[in-house]
Specification:
- This protein has a two-stranded antiparallel sheet with strand order 1-2.
- By secondary structure, it is mostly helical.
- The longest helix is centred in the middle third of the chain and has 36 residues.
- The chain is 73% helix and 1% strand.
Length: 289
Amino acid sequence: MKTKRNLLIFIVVILLCGWLGVFVDRFIPEQPKGDTLGMGIWLVFPLLTTILLRVFAGDGWRDIGLLPNLKGNIKWYIVSLLVYPVITSIVLLVSYIFGWMDFSDFNLDALVSVFAGGLLIQFVKNFFEESVWRGYLTSKLSSLKVNDFWLYFIVGGVWGAWHIPYFLVFLSESDIFSVLPVNRWLFALIGIVTMICWTVMYTEIYLMTKSIWPLVLMHMTEDALVNPLILGGYIKIAQGKEFLVSPTAGIITTILYLMVGLLLRTKRKKLEREVLKNGRESFPFVELK
Protein backbone atom coordinates (compact mmCIF):
# COMPACT_ATOMS: atom_id res chain seq x y z
CA MET A 1 0.00 0.00 0.00
CA LYS A 2 2.84 2.39 0.88
CA THR A 3 4.59 1.69 -2.43
CA LYS A 4 1.42 2.32 -4.45
CA ARG A 5 0.76 5.56 -2.56
CA ASN A 6 4.29 6.83 -3.12
CA LEU A 7 4.21 5.86 -6.79
CA LEU A 8 1.02 7.86 -7.22
CA ILE A 9 2.64 10.88 -5.55
CA PHE A 10 5.71 10.48 -7.74
CA ILE A 11 3.73 10.26 -10.99
CA VAL A 12 1.55 13.26 -10.14
CA VAL A 13 4.61 15.40 -9.36
CA ILE A 14 6.34 14.22 -12.56
CA LEU A 15 3.34 15.16 -14.69
CA LEU A 16 3.01 18.61 -13.10
CA CYS A 17 6.59 19.79 -12.48
CA GLY A 18 7.33 20.76 -16.07
CA TRP A 19 4.20 22.89 -16.23
CA LEU A 20 5.24 24.54 -12.98
CA GLY A 21 8.49 25.38 -14.75
CA VAL A 22 6.60 26.83 -17.72
CA PHE A 23 4.51 28.94 -15.30
CA VAL A 24 7.61 30.25 -13.50
CA ASP A 25 9.28 31.21 -16.78
CA ARG A 26 6.34 33.42 -17.69
CA PHE A 27 7.38 35.76 -14.87
CA ILE A 28 11.08 35.80 -15.84
CA PRO A 29 11.12 36.68 -19.55
CA GLU A 30 14.81 37.53 -19.91
CA GLN A 31 16.61 34.19 -19.55
CA PRO A 32 19.23 32.30 -21.58
CA LYS A 33 17.59 30.22 -24.28
CA GLY A 34 17.51 26.57 -23.28
CA ASP A 35 18.74 27.32 -19.76
CA THR A 36 15.81 28.82 -17.87
CA LEU A 37 14.74 28.50 -14.26
CA GLY A 38 11.65 26.67 -15.45
CA MET A 39 13.77 24.07 -17.21
CA GLY A 40 15.78 23.71 -14.02
CA ILE A 41 12.58 22.99 -12.08
CA TRP A 42 11.53 20.44 -14.72
CA LEU A 43 14.91 18.69 -14.55
CA VAL A 44 15.41 18.70 -10.77
CA PHE A 45 11.95 17.90 -9.40
CA PRO A 46 11.89 14.18 -10.35
CA LEU A 47 15.12 13.49 -8.47
CA LEU A 48 14.10 15.71 -5.56
CA THR A 49 10.79 13.87 -5.34
CA THR A 50 12.46 10.46 -5.19
CA ILE A 51 14.83 11.67 -2.46
CA LEU A 52 11.95 13.02 -0.37
CA LEU A 53 9.94 9.82 -0.84
CA ARG A 54 12.92 7.68 0.15
CA VAL A 55 13.78 9.80 3.20
CA PHE A 56 10.37 10.81 4.55
CA ALA A 57 7.77 8.47 3.03
CA GLY A 58 9.27 5.13 3.92
CA ASP A 59 10.73 4.06 0.57
CA GLY A 60 14.28 3.75 1.86
CA TRP A 61 17.40 3.35 -0.27
CA ARG A 62 17.99 -0.40 -0.58
CA ASP A 63 16.47 -0.75 -4.06
CA ILE A 64 18.07 2.24 -5.76
CA GLY A 65 20.55 0.05 -7.68
CA LEU A 66 23.78 1.85 -6.79
CA LEU A 67 25.86 -1.32 -6.60
CA PRO A 68 27.50 -2.09 -9.98
CA ASN A 69 26.85 -5.86 -9.67
CA LEU A 70 29.63 -6.62 -12.13
CA LYS A 71 29.76 -10.36 -11.46
CA GLY A 72 28.13 -12.08 -14.40
CA ASN A 73 26.96 -8.78 -15.87
CA ILE A 74 29.98 -7.42 -17.77
CA LYS A 75 28.33 -8.41 -21.06
CA TRP A 76 25.33 -6.20 -20.25
CA TYR A 77 27.63 -3.26 -19.60
CA ILE A 78 29.17 -3.86 -23.03
CA VAL A 79 25.70 -4.07 -24.61
CA SER A 80 24.76 -0.81 -22.89
CA LEU A 81 27.79 0.98 -24.33
CA LEU A 82 27.36 -0.40 -27.85
CA VAL A 83 23.62 -0.49 -28.50
CA TYR A 84 23.21 3.16 -29.58
CA PRO A 85 26.41 3.35 -31.68
CA VAL A 86 25.62 0.03 -33.41
CA ILE A 87 21.96 0.81 -34.18
CA THR A 88 22.86 4.33 -35.30
CA SER A 89 25.57 2.93 -37.58
CA ILE A 90 23.09 0.47 -39.10
CA VAL A 91 20.59 3.26 -39.78
CA LEU A 92 23.30 5.46 -41.34
CA LEU A 93 24.54 2.58 -43.51
CA VAL A 94 21.04 1.75 -44.76
CA SER A 95 20.43 5.44 -45.46
CA TYR A 96 23.73 5.70 -47.35
CA ILE A 97 22.94 2.65 -49.50
CA PHE A 98 19.48 3.92 -50.44
CA GLY A 99 20.47 7.59 -50.72
CA TRP A 100 18.23 8.70 -47.89
CA MET A 101 20.85 10.89 -46.22
CA ASP A 102 23.36 13.49 -47.37
CA PHE A 103 26.79 12.86 -45.78
CA SER A 104 28.62 15.74 -47.45
CA ASP A 105 29.04 17.54 -44.10
CA PHE A 106 29.89 14.40 -42.16
CA ASN A 107 33.19 14.72 -40.30
CA LEU A 108 34.07 11.66 -38.23
CA ASP A 109 36.97 13.31 -36.38
CA ALA A 110 34.81 16.25 -35.36
CA LEU A 111 31.95 13.97 -34.31
CA VAL A 112 34.28 11.80 -32.21
CA SER A 113 35.66 14.94 -30.57
CA VAL A 114 32.15 16.21 -29.75
CA PHE A 115 31.17 12.75 -28.49
CA ALA A 116 34.22 12.44 -26.23
CA GLY A 117 33.81 15.99 -24.97
CA GLY A 118 30.21 15.36 -23.96
CA LEU A 119 30.67 12.08 -22.11
CA LEU A 120 31.43 13.41 -18.64
CA ILE A 121 28.57 15.90 -18.45
CA GLN A 122 26.17 13.31 -19.89
CA PHE A 123 27.40 10.72 -17.39
CA VAL A 124 26.60 13.06 -14.49
CA LYS A 125 23.25 14.13 -15.97
CA ASN A 126 22.15 10.58 -16.63
CA PHE A 127 23.20 9.31 -13.24
CA PHE A 128 20.51 11.59 -11.85
CA GLU A 129 17.99 10.62 -14.56
CA GLU A 130 18.51 6.88 -14.21
CA SER A 131 18.28 7.17 -10.42
CA VAL A 132 14.73 8.29 -11.13
CA TRP A 133 13.49 6.24 -14.09
CA ARG A 134 15.16 2.92 -13.35
CA GLY A 135 16.41 3.31 -9.78
CA TYR A 136 13.00 4.45 -8.54
CA LEU A 137 10.06 4.05 -10.93
CA THR A 138 11.10 0.76 -12.56
CA SER A 139 12.32 -0.65 -9.26
CA LYS A 140 9.11 0.15 -7.37
CA LEU A 141 6.81 -1.13 -10.11
CA SER A 142 8.89 -4.28 -10.41
CA SER A 143 8.52 -4.87 -6.66
CA LEU A 144 4.75 -4.91 -7.21
CA LYS A 145 5.21 -7.74 -9.75
CA VAL A 146 3.73 -5.67 -12.57
CA ASN A 147 3.40 -7.55 -15.86
CA ASP A 148 6.40 -6.92 -18.15
CA PHE A 149 4.43 -5.12 -20.84
CA TRP A 150 2.57 -2.96 -18.35
CA LEU A 151 5.94 -2.16 -16.80
CA TYR A 152 7.31 -0.98 -20.15
CA PHE A 153 4.17 1.01 -20.88
CA ILE A 154 3.93 2.75 -17.50
CA VAL A 155 7.62 3.61 -17.16
CA GLY A 156 7.94 4.67 -20.80
CA GLY A 157 4.67 6.57 -20.70
CA VAL A 158 5.57 8.51 -17.55
CA TRP A 159 9.09 9.14 -18.85
CA GLY A 160 7.63 10.40 -22.10
CA ALA A 161 4.86 12.45 -20.47
CA TRP A 162 7.48 14.16 -18.29
CA HIS A 163 8.97 15.46 -21.56
CA ILE A 164 5.70 17.02 -22.81
CA PRO A 165 6.45 20.54 -21.46
CA TYR A 166 9.92 20.20 -22.95
CA PHE A 167 8.52 19.23 -26.36
CA LEU A 168 5.75 21.84 -26.34
CA VAL A 169 7.56 24.80 -24.74
CA PHE A 170 11.22 24.47 -23.81
CA LEU A 171 12.56 22.83 -27.00
CA SER A 172 13.23 25.17 -29.91
CA GLU A 173 11.36 24.68 -33.18
CA SER A 174 14.65 24.47 -35.07
CA ASP A 175 15.70 21.48 -32.96
CA ILE A 176 12.33 19.84 -33.56
CA PHE A 177 12.60 20.27 -37.34
CA SER A 178 16.14 18.92 -37.33
CA VAL A 179 14.70 15.64 -36.00
CA LEU A 180 11.29 15.48 -37.72
CA PRO A 181 9.34 17.98 -39.88
CA VAL A 182 6.26 18.03 -37.64
CA ASN A 183 4.48 20.38 -35.26
CA ARG A 184 5.09 20.31 -31.53
CA TRP A 185 2.05 18.20 -30.64
CA LEU A 186 2.84 15.45 -33.13
CA PHE A 187 6.49 15.58 -32.06
CA ALA A 188 5.42 15.06 -28.44
CA LEU A 189 3.27 12.07 -29.39
CA ILE A 190 6.07 10.49 -31.43
CA GLY A 191 8.49 11.20 -28.59
CA ILE A 192 6.33 9.36 -26.07
CA VAL A 193 5.92 6.33 -28.35
CA THR A 194 9.68 6.31 -28.94
CA MET A 195 10.43 6.36 -25.22
CA ILE A 196 8.02 3.52 -24.55
CA CYS A 197 9.87 1.46 -27.16
CA TRP A 198 13.28 2.44 -25.74
CA THR A 199 12.08 1.56 -22.25
CA VAL A 200 11.98 -2.14 -23.11
CA MET A 201 15.77 -2.41 -23.43
CA TYR A 202 16.42 -0.10 -20.46
CA THR A 203 14.06 -2.13 -18.30
CA GLU A 204 15.46 -5.49 -19.34
CA ILE A 205 19.06 -4.55 -18.62
CA TYR A 206 18.01 -3.13 -15.27
CA LEU A 207 16.07 -6.27 -14.35
CA MET A 208 19.04 -8.48 -15.25
CA THR A 209 21.70 -6.44 -13.46
CA LYS A 210 19.69 -4.76 -10.67
CA SER A 211 22.00 -1.78 -11.18
CA ILE A 212 21.48 1.67 -12.66
CA TRP A 213 25.07 1.94 -13.92
CA PRO A 214 24.64 0.12 -17.26
CA LEU A 215 21.68 2.39 -17.96
CA VAL A 216 23.67 5.48 -17.04
CA LEU A 217 26.30 4.40 -19.59
CA MET A 218 23.67 3.63 -22.24
CA HIS A 219 21.81 6.92 -21.75
CA MET A 220 25.13 8.80 -21.67
CA THR A 221 26.15 7.29 -25.01
CA GLU A 222 22.81 8.19 -26.61
CA ASP A 223 22.93 11.81 -25.47
CA ALA A 224 26.61 12.26 -26.39
CA LEU A 225 26.34 10.62 -29.83
CA VAL A 226 22.88 10.63 -31.38
CA ASN A 227 21.76 14.13 -30.41
CA PRO A 228 24.95 15.89 -31.65
CA LEU A 229 24.84 13.84 -34.85
CA ILE A 230 21.52 15.44 -35.74
CA LEU A 231 21.67 18.84 -34.05
CA GLY A 232 25.27 19.40 -35.14
CA GLY A 233 24.34 19.06 -38.81
CA TYR A 234 26.68 16.14 -39.54
CA ILE A 235 23.94 14.46 -41.59
CA LYS A 236 21.02 15.74 -43.61
CA ILE A 237 18.05 13.44 -44.13
CA ALA A 238 16.33 13.49 -47.51
CA GLN A 239 12.93 15.13 -47.48
CA GLY A 240 10.21 12.61 -46.72
CA LYS A 241 12.63 10.05 -45.25
CA GLU A 242 12.84 11.61 -41.78
CA PHE A 243 10.04 9.42 -40.49
CA LEU A 244 11.92 6.32 -41.61
CA VAL A 245 15.53 6.93 -40.60
CA SER A 246 15.77 9.79 -38.14
CA PRO A 247 18.48 8.50 -35.75
CA THR A 248 16.34 9.66 -32.85
CA ALA A 249 12.76 8.84 -33.74
CA GLY A 250 12.61 7.19 -37.16
CA ILE A 251 10.36 4.17 -37.65
CA ILE A 252 13.23 1.87 -38.64
CA THR A 253 15.38 3.18 -35.79
CA THR A 254 12.66 2.70 -33.19
CA ILE A 255 11.80 -0.80 -34.42
CA LEU A 256 15.47 -1.81 -34.12
CA TYR A 257 15.64 -0.56 -30.52
CA LEU A 258 12.40 -2.36 -29.72
CA MET A 259 13.79 -5.56 -31.22
CA VAL A 260 16.89 -5.25 -29.03
CA GLY A 261 14.67 -4.85 -25.98
CA LEU A 262 12.53 -7.87 -26.83
CA LEU A 263 15.63 -9.99 -27.49
CA LEU A 264 16.92 -8.96 -24.06
CA ARG A 265 13.59 -9.97 -22.56
CA THR A 266 13.90 -13.40 -24.20
CA LYS A 267 17.37 -13.72 -22.70
CA ARG A 268 16.13 -12.72 -19.24
CA LYS A 269 13.31 -15.23 -19.37
CA LYS A 270 15.82 -17.93 -20.29
CA LEU A 271 17.98 -16.91 -17.32
CA GLU A 272 14.94 -17.07 -15.05
CA ARG A 273 14.26 -20.61 -16.17
CA GLU A 274 17.87 -21.51 -15.43
CA VAL A 275 17.52 -19.96 -11.96
CA LEU A 276 14.54 -22.21 -11.28
CA LYS A 277 16.45 -25.22 -12.57
CA ASN A 278 19.91 -24.62 -11.08
CA GLY A 279 19.31 -22.40 -8.04
CA ARG A 280 19.52 -18.68 -7.36
CA GLU A 281 23.18 -18.77 -6.35
CA SER A 282 24.05 -19.27 -10.02
CA PHE A 283 22.30 -16.04 -11.09
CA PRO A 284 21.99 -13.86 -7.94
CA PHE A 285 20.83 -10.70 -9.75
CA VAL A 286 18.05 -12.22 -11.88
CA GLU A 287 14.63 -11.38 -10.48
CA LEU A 288 11.88 -13.95 -10.86
CA LYS A 289 8.55 -12.50 -11.92
